Amino acid sequence: MKPLVHAVVGCGRVAPNHVDGFTALPDAELRWACDRDLARARALAREYGLPRVTSDVREVLADPEVDSVSVAVDHAGHYELVAAALTAGKHVLVEKPLAMTVEDGAALTALAERAGRVLSVVSQHRYDPVVTAVRDWIAEGLLGRLVSGTVSLQCGRDDAYYAESYWRGTFAGEGGSALVNQGYHALDVTRWLTGGLSVVGAATGHTAPRGGMETEDTLAAVLRGPQGALVTYQVTVASSITWRTRIELVGTDGSVLFDLDHPGTLHLAEGGDALRAAAGTVRGQVSPPPAGIGYYGISHRRQIADFAAAVRDPRHTMAADGTAGLDTLRLLREMYRTARSEGGAASAGGSGARSAGGSGAAAPSGTAAVGAVTARG
Ligand SMILES: NC(=O)c1ccc[n+]([C@@H]2O[C@H](COP(=O)([O-])OP(=O)(O)OC[C@H]3O[C@@H](n4cnc5c(N)ncnc54)[C@H](O)[C@@H]3O)[C@@H](O)[C@H]2O)c1
Fold first, then answer.
1. Is residue 317 part of a domain?
2. Which domain holds residue 182?
3. What region holds the GFO/IDH/MocA-like oxidoreductase domain (predicted)?
4. Less CB within 10 Å around the terminal CB: N or C of the chain?
5. Co-location of 233 and 367 in the same domain
6. Ligand 1 pocket test: which of 40, 59, 74 has the largest number of ligand atoms within 8 Å of its C-beta?
7. pLDDT per residue over 154-197, tens digit each?
8. 367 C-alpha to center of ligand 1: Å?
9. Where do the H-state alpha helices sit in the chain?
10. Which of 8, 9, 11, 14 best tests ligand 1's pocket when mutated (most atoms within 8 Å of CB)?
């Protein structure tokens, strides 16, 4: 079989997870490290043994042997690079979120469809053993009808994280912050498990902003599942704890509490005998050590294997395709819109004083925005 030839575009913090995932495939060749900062591309290539480096993505896309591309750059750069790669006939694995706006995201999924190319948005936690198990339990009815949920995420970030980045904490480069970046996975996983969520209300806070960030550092929302379950969702990057997720889903016949930080960690499963027995199998699983930064988890590998399977077989259905990424983007933009509807200083889409390439400006202080929009239920 011809090896799948892959390129990584964007050689920053998350790039090692992509390198690791494609390296772990039995039939792939990782060829290009591309970063507009050539030193970064060189460093990644040197560390992981990639044969070719460039600062110009056009060189990657002109390589006729390249089948697929990881796009792992700042959020504002996703649309242009994904569109260029699909237009060049490449399959694309793009880091979350799919794009900055729903309109751009929809244009990308439509382009992938027209081009007959795989487009997948990274949602690695959908592949965590505990998450896939909970999804099965819900499908099997072990929790009964979902009635309630609580999602809470603390992921403290220091001043340098924002101050030293050209895009983090800016509306122009990131499109929001605590929700769209750190809070993305907990939202995506919960949306997937509940079968869809709509926004009841949302608020953003600029509570203790670090490093000149202009975007929200805290967000809280009330969401509603398709059968009426009410889910409270909270994320903050202003805590002293680096990363702690808790997702609790409560049904009429059982409830589960798990995290995304230690894939496989099920804190609680209460219900009937079938649920308790199933929970025992998840508790016994041992996960391999993560490839990159620990809290990114272990499942980039699994999603990349799923992506490669879809590239090889157009009939293969992915757990995290472009449409899934578009639906999560739609939900999170609606959360921001709802929060902004009451007029908040730290709401996404507000007038950003710091541009994607800029150095930073004083951030507004205080809390912001309370929205209350009733949705279906
Ligand atoms: N799935 C996860 O758990 C996870 C974890 C971290 C980051 N991410 C996502 O990955 C993406 C990148 O995040 P990061 O933390 O690695 O960012 P980073 O700032 O560390 O790296 C981004 C790199 O992209 C490069 N770049 C920007 N535009 C480019 C272009 N046009 N051509 C080539 N290179 C370009 C920059 O020079 C930089 O080196 C973001 O979408 C982020 O949300 C996902």
1. no
2. 128-295+322-372
3. 132-256
4. N
5. yes
6. 74
7. 999 999 999 999 999 999 999 999 999 999 999 999 999 999 99
8. 29
9. 15-23, 38-48, 57-61, 78-87, 102-115, 129-139, 159-163, 171-174, 184-194, 273-283, 300-312, 322-340
10. 14
